[in-house]
Design a protein that fits this description.
Layout lengths: L1 H21 L39 H13 L1 H23 L3 E12 L14 E15 L4 H67 L5 H35 L30 H4 L1 H22 L4 E13 L10 E10 L5 H69 L5 H35 L11
Antiparallel strand pairs: 1-2, 2-3, 3-4
């Protein structure tokens, strides 16, 4: 009879196990990750042109290096990313701890009056005694179906994604500081152009007054010359306002008071160009921290699905305990107070399949979302890099043509001024030539600043010198 009962128990366990395993069928991920070739990345070895991790130092500007170093040290947004990494590391440690032997200790003492009319006979019944217990218990779960292993791998994936996010935030912060630094240099150079224009107009006004005194010009030319000065001063004031705002923005990025960079004057001419690729690098996806983070999130979500699937299988554990138990504290350490035990346990999800299937569908949907997020990041990375490469090549051609246009405008202004001084043309001709020249000078500054900004944007698109070993 006992053997028959044991056989029935084993049969029921097998039936429950089969039912539990079968209940996860029909739920699977529908998304697939994009291959590099599908987004236009050439196959082949890694590009020979590598961006250094601290790429801004290669520009040879100590002031820029100081601002970026300060920002990387003190910017709160970077500290938030660091805190997220610490949280992910703690989660990994927690999952790893859950996979080992767990030992708990307990001790208690309870003063209790026992009923004289209950199951306890005298002298215990009707008396008040102290119940004392001291016990150590341990539990070990056998990970036959990979539940804990998958949970650890999912946590590790999240940790690695957080580490890559930290690198991505570092790249974004450094590039934002560099962009603001270039913008400040552009505005200062534009102010120098405006100041030069003001000086030229002041000199021209002096010449006009001489010609009016000599009867060679009328008060019309005099008023035109006088009216040109306030216009130049307004441009200078507008540029001063923008310069102050940009310095304040730099100070905020560096987590410093607004006035910290009031004396900062970037010189765009001193910034050295970085050696960068001319075409889309084959290893672009490995260069970028955001792509790496998205890939690790995809891996973590895959392991999360494995965790949900493993919960359809039985959980097998072994529990053991040893301790002391007595009525009365004075007898707790007597040899007869010892108690101990050991035994296995199995838990089967028999009537919980609906909840487990819903949980698996949720994890599967999370995986699909992670895959599509990865695909979106890949597409954006390729587009962003292609745009910056195209802009870089276009700016080279634009600067060549603009240099010729500026040279012609300089010559035209010199000729117009000489003709005016000789009385061969009117002042309007000089103003027209001067307007054209100022526009060309402004374009020279703008194109130079755009070339540097594009270089920063391309560095950012290429990953900013991301070190893949730091996110593993």
């Amino acid at each position: 009879m006992p053997g028959r009962r044991a056989g029935w128990a084993v049969s029921l366990a097998v039936i429950a196990l089969v039912a539990g395993c079968a209940s996860s069928a029909g739920i699977s991920s529908q998304a697939s990750a994009l291959e590099p070739v599908a987004v236009g990345l050439p196959s082949g070895a890694a590009s020979e042109v590598a961006v250094p991790t601290d790429w801004w130092r290669t520009w040879g500007d100590d002031a820029l290096t100081g601002v970026i170093d300060q920002a990387l040290k003190a910017q709160p947004s970077l500290k938030v990313a660091q805190a997220r990494l610490s949280r992910a590391q703690a989660a990994t440690a927690g999952e790893e701890a859950a996979d080992g032997l767990r030992i708990n200790g307990s001790a208690d003492a309870t003063r209790q009056h026992f009923s004289a009319n209950s199951i306890y006979p005298p002298p215990l019944g009707g008396s008040t005694r102290t119940l004392a217990n001291a016990q150590i218990a341990g539990i070990w779960e056998f990970d036959f179906f990979g539940l804990h292993r998958s949970a650890i791998e999912a946590a590790v994936g999240g940790e690695r994604a957080a580490a890559a996010d930290l690198q991505a935030a570092r790249n974004v912060l450094a590039s934002n500081v560099a962009q603001a630094y270039v913008q400040l240099g552009r505005l200062i150079a534009q102010r120098d152009v405006a100041q030069q224009a003001l000086s030229q107009r002041e000199q021209m006004l002096g010449l006009i007054r001489q010609r009016v005194d000599a009867g060679l010009d009328t008060r019309v030319e005099l008023k035109q010359g006088e009216g040109a000065l306030p216009d130049a001063r307004v441009q200078i004031e507008q540029l001063d306002e923008q310069i102050a705002a940009t310095r304040h923005a730099l100070a905020a990025l560096a987590a410093l008071p607004p006035q910290s960079y009031d004396q900062l004057r970037p010189d765009l001419q001193r910034l050295k160009a970085l050696p960068l690729p001319e075409v889309l690098p084959a290893d672009l996806l490995a260069r970028r921290a955001d792509i790496t983070a998205a890939r690790w999130r995809m891996e973590a979500a895959t392991k999360g699905v494995d965790v949900s699937k493993a919960q359809f299988y039985p959980n097998v554990s072994l529990t053991a305990f040893v301790g002391l138990s007595s009525i009365g504290l004075d007898r707790l350490v007597d040899s007869g107070s010892q108690h101990y035990g050991i035994g296995p346990a199995i838990h089967l999800p028999i009537f919980d399949a609906g909840r487990l299937r819903a949980q698996l569908r949720t994890r599967t949907a999370d995986l699909d979302a992670a895959v599509e997020s990865y695909n979106g990041a890949v597409l954006e990375a390729v587009r962003e890099t292609a745009d910056q490469l195209n802009a870089r090549q276009s700016l080279v051609r634009q600067r060549e043509q603009q240099a010729q246009a500026r040279s012609a405008a300089e010559a035209a202004y010199d000729i117009a001024r000489q003709r005016y001084e000789a009385g061969l043309s009117g002042y309007l001709t000089v103003l027209s030539a001067e307007t054209s020249l100022l526009n060309q000078r402004r374009q020279t500054v703008d194109l130079q600043a755009r070339a540097l900004s594009t270089q920063v944007a391309l560095v950012r698109a290429l990953g900013g010198g991301f070190d893949t070993t730091s996110a593993r």
